[in-house]
Amino acid sequence: MTTTLDPWLLERLVCPVTRQPLRHDKEAGELVSEAAGLAYPIRDGVPVMLVEEARPLAG
């Protein structure tokens, strides 16, 4: 599933846990926080920035 986000929005979003920038994984449809080890889903083009909705990164 490829997800497109507005570049302006992507530049401003940060991880709610670490306040660090996020990496947009277009193929997975997620915003990834390497610092927190979490991936936040993007549903219907809307980032879901809730820790309880994030999935832990493997590894």
From TrEMBL:
It comes from the Bacteria. One of its GO terms (cellular component) is cytosol. Pfam families: Trm112p. InterPro entries: Trm112-like (IPR005651). HAMAP family: UPF0434 (MF_01187). Belongs to the UPF0434 family. This is UPF0434 protein FHS94_000338. It comes from Sphingomonas aerophila.
